[in-house]
Structure formats: structure tokens, C-alpha cells
Amino acid sequence: MKLEDLDKSRIPQHVAIIMDGNGRWAQKQQKMRIFGHQNAFTAVRQTVEAAVESGVKYLTLYTFSTENWNRPQDEVDGLMELLIKAVRDETKTLMDNNVKLTTIGDLQRIPERSRNKLMECMQETSHNTALTLVLALSYSARWEIAEALKTIVSESANGQLSVQNIDEHTLGKYLTTKDYPDPDLLIRTGGELRVSNFLLWQMAYTEFYFSDLLWPDFRKEHFFDAIGEYQQRQRRFGKTGDQIVNQ
After folding, report:
1. Of 29, 51, 191, 204, which sees the most CB atoms within 10 A?
2. What is the DSSP string of the chain?
3. Is 68 designated active site?
4. Which domains does the chain have, with CATH numbers?
5. Which residue in 5, 20, 77, 197 is the catalytic one?
6. Catalytic status, residue 182
7. pLDDT tens digit string along 91-110?
8. Residue 242 pLDDT > 80
């Protein structure tokens, strides 16, 4: 699908992506898994540009999960080095496209060198307004919810928060995504049909789009395809179809 084929009045505000298939892409070419991660940058760059061009305001990329720390150490080390390279190489692209970079996740587990480079890029792009690019780094939804509950319990015990006033909106205010709207659309590449501990609370009413493409092969037209599919769906949020049509 092309950009001009989309209904500009029905662009999702927030798109989240599980970028799956880097390792399998490399293995198909009889290369080490890190080769797939290295070749994922083009897909990320094209996706960011497509998001800006289509008018998406928030793009969250599942970059590194808390479970990924359990991968072989050489792969983890390689990913952390790639993070530094990506941030260094792509800062100009982010600035040229008016993109603000931010993160969610347990950044204290990220090596200091990688974390510092990330913070530099976040500071440099902090005033950009076209798109907020959120990297989920050392992130998992269960970790996020557990951390939120720790704070809620602590504040309740200290009298800062009344138990009677706790509802679903309260929990949302303690999540790492509190400054962003919930995703309208989730894209997952790689042919897998699961959400892999990603934004579990936030995706209660998110539309899912699954692609068999391996992430390094993902391009702008595939991003537009996903939005086109999203625009064919009726989002009811628990209401009937007639209520949505007549509201």
C-alpha cells in the first residue's frame, strides 16, 4: 500500500511494534544471529520515516526485553554495542525528521556506556515534535506492573494514597507509559502470534496485525499495509457496532 491510499482522518495515534525475526533472517543466510540485528537498522529507519509521513504521533519499538538478558552473552554484548552504533548513526536522521527519542524499561541494567550514549541522543532530540519514538529497552510488561504495584503499596502504607481511590486509572499513572496514549495498533513481524510480555496492560483494546515478514525485510509499504488493515476495522471498545455508527 502507498501513503496516498490511506485515510488521513483515521491514522492511529500510537503504533507499537514487536520487531521479530532478526535471528532467523541471519540463519537463512547462514550467518550469526548478530548479523540479523545489524541488518535491522534499515527497517527501523524506514518505519520511523513512514510513521512521520503518515502522521502517527507515537511509535514504540520492542527493542530488548528483560527476558533477552538470558540470551548467550556474546549476543547480548553485541546488541549493546549495536545500540551505541544505532544511536550515534541515527541521531541526525531523528533530527532531520523532527523525531523525539525516549525510552521505557529498566535502564539501570543497560551498560553505562550504552546508557550514556542513549541519554545524549534523548537530550539532543528532546524538543522535536513530529513523532515520539519510544524504545522499550530492558522492558517487560510484568516487570512494569510489578514496579507500579510496589510504588502504589508503598504510597498507600505511607498514607499518600487511599486504597478506596485506587482504580484502573490509578495504576495507569504509575506505569512507565503514563505520558503516552495506549497503542491503537500493534504490528508483529516474524510470523509469531503472541505479544511476548509487551505492553500487556496498555493493549487491552489494541488492534493486532501480524506479518510473516522477518523484521530486516520490513519497509515503508509494509507499515502502510498495516495501517490500511487497521482502517478497515471497527473499534467498539465494548459497545455495539450500531452505537459506534450512530455516535
Report:
1. 51
2. --GGGS-GGG--SEEEEE---HHHHHHHTT--HHHHHHTTHHHHHHHHHHHHHHT--EEEEEEEEGGGGGS-HHHHHHHHHHHHHHHHHHHHHHHHTTEEEEEES-GGGS-HHHHHHHHHHHHHTTT--SEEEEEEEEE-HHHHHHHHHHHHHHHHHTTSS-GGG--HHHHHTTSTTTTSPPPSEEEE-TT----TTSSTTTTTTPEEEE--S-GGG--HHHHHHHHHHHHTS---TTS-HHHHHH-
3. yes
4. 3-140+184-232 (3.40.1180.10)
5. 20
6. no
7. 999 999 999 999 999 999 99
8. no
Q: One of 68, 106, 128, 217 is an active-site residue; which one? A: 68
Place of cell 534523548: 122
Report pLDDT for 19: 97
Residue 16 contacts by C-beta under 8 Å, 6 or more apart in sequence?
59, 60, 61, 62, 183, 185, 186, 187, 198, 199, 203, 206
Q: Which amino acid is at 21?
A: G
- pTM of the complete model beyond 0.85: yes
